[in-house]
Amino acid sequence: MKKRGLPELFFLILVIYLILPVLGTALYAFSTKWNNTILPEGITLEWMAFLFQDMKFLEAFGRSVLLSGGAVALAFLFIVPAIFVIVLYFPKYEKWVQAAVVLVYAFPGVILAVGLIRAYAHLGVPMIFTILGAYVIGILPYIYQGTRNSLRNVNARQLLDAAELLGASKTQALLKVLLPAVYPGLFVAALLSFSILFGEFVLINLVVGSRFETVQIYLMKKLNSSGHIASAVVVVYLVLMSLLTAVIYGLTKRMKGVAHT
Amino acid sequence: MSYVMIENLRKTYGASTVLSDIHMTIGKGEFVTLLGPSGCGKSTILRIIAGLTDATAGSVSIDGKDLRNIESKNREVGMVFQSYALFPNMTVKENVAFGLEMKKMDPIEIEKQVRDMLAVVRLSDKEKAYPQELSGGQQQRVALARALIVRPKVLLLDEPLSALDAQIRKKLQADLRAIQTELGITMILVTHDQEEAMAVSDKIWVMNQGGIAQCGTPTEIYTKPGNEFVANFIGHYNVFSRQELEQLIGQPLPGDHVKFAIRPEAIRTEECPGAYQVKAVAKDSMMSGNVIRTVFQAGERTFSIEQLHQQARVFEQGKVYECYVESNDVIALK
Q1: Same domain, A104 and A27
Q2: Which residues contact B22 (CB under 8 A, 6 or more apart)?
Q3: Which fold is adopted by the domain B237-333?
Q4: What residues does the ABC transporter domain cover (chain B) (predicted)?
Q5: If residue A54 lies in a helix (H) or strand (E), which one and from where to where?
Q6: CB of A167 within 8 Å of any CB in chain B?
Q7: How many domains does chain A have?
Q8: Chain B residues touching A162 at Cβ < 8 A
Q9: Is the pLDDT of residue B154 over 80?
Q10: Residue B98's pLDDT is what?
Q11: Domain encompassing residue A154
Q12: Confidence at residue B183, expressed as pLDDT on a 0 to 100 scale
């Protein structure tokens, strides 16, 4: 039998290091009391029930979904077609998109928030729309990489050429051949972007704060009032992210040689 | 009678000229190969014929119809790509049926034609498979079936076999030629593999630096290379300057040509009365399939001779041999 060595031990330590806080938070979300004991004194669904009966949480959850989903939808409406055109027909302009992608990483959240307030607050534009616009730009790297990689993996230009030579119009080639070939990659990019925006806190808190309470702001408030409820929020968030990750994993696996992000 | 006619074709990208003044005529049902090194412009010609790239000047016509203002989808030209370009979201059957569906053909007729075409390319048992589940050779046969099923007037093959291993490539070369003969379709193959060109073509157009270097049947191209480029590109010709060859054979050559080529198998070591004679030292021998190639050195110049493996004479390395070349095997180059 193969002997277990140091690598396995280090891997085990890493897994414990990563899982222990999550496990602790999850346990706390379902515990009656956990102050002076090693394990919780009892198990309850009270905090979870409270959370799902609290309209403020449900509204915050709805706002998070709306804001993140809206930003992803806008990105797919405006950015994805632009990337299609650039990658397929004007690849020499890709360097400009890449520069824009780098710029997104270059601005820390706090500086971006101050910049947005200074630039837009006096214009009378509702700041939530400013945030929405900033989110669309913020997910540019994920949308760009996902779209470009999908197009390259399927050799998109050649697929279009092949379809047209077989009698398809440009629209038919796009709808019948290219989009079905790259949609798993685009879907993965969308889910990834959504999950990143769903967890965003710095920008929304600094620019809008309580005026548009998202799950992350709700969580911050609950941290000061009830650790159990805050843990319950984290558990709900983790379950949602796990589901999204499972879908992303499933799609990526299914794509095999078709399109990957 | 010319079926495909290319006249004064020119393609430039900024200051760089990719094709310069190309003239080609191809007969109906011919299997023609554009042969040349990478970057010589052969694929660009295919893309211009297909309408995927615009020519800077010149015209292409098929069956008397000028293609200049005709979209790709209406040119009745099929194309098989090097990377297959199979639609990954469709099964083999759906890929092959795609062109007929675009023609809005009756589904029952599509079903029948797809079944027949898959039988031609021996893939009947793979109709439900997705491209990524097939081997490279099978994918290329699907690509061929998909292009052939719409009965194009001309089928363009852009290095379709270059990504495959040698054994499958040879098998597919034979398949390609057999299908072309069976269907009588005009095919234009682009390749940089001279053996492949020789194996499948009725006619070969050798290209170099955006121009046509020579055109002829495989036999003509092989036995009568017109210039130094073709002689170097086809086979393992020994190419000499006049001075070099005159020094080797020890006598003046007739005519005023400055370059000469000799096929490696035309140089023998058995005595041959009346032939040019060269004393040379045997150097390395190398086996290449059923052929043994031996390098000889005479003075500062080296040349190689090829013998069939079974009939080969064994040369002792470092030993001096008398080599003979008949005068009609010395080809004067332009």
Answers
A1: no
A2: B6, B8, B9, B10, B41, B45, B58, B211, B212
A3: OB fold (Dihydrolipoamide Acetyltransferase, E2P) (2.40.50)
A4: 4-234
A5: none
A6: yes
A7: 2
A8: 79, 81, 85, 87, 146
A9: yes
A10: 97
A11: 54-255
A12: 87
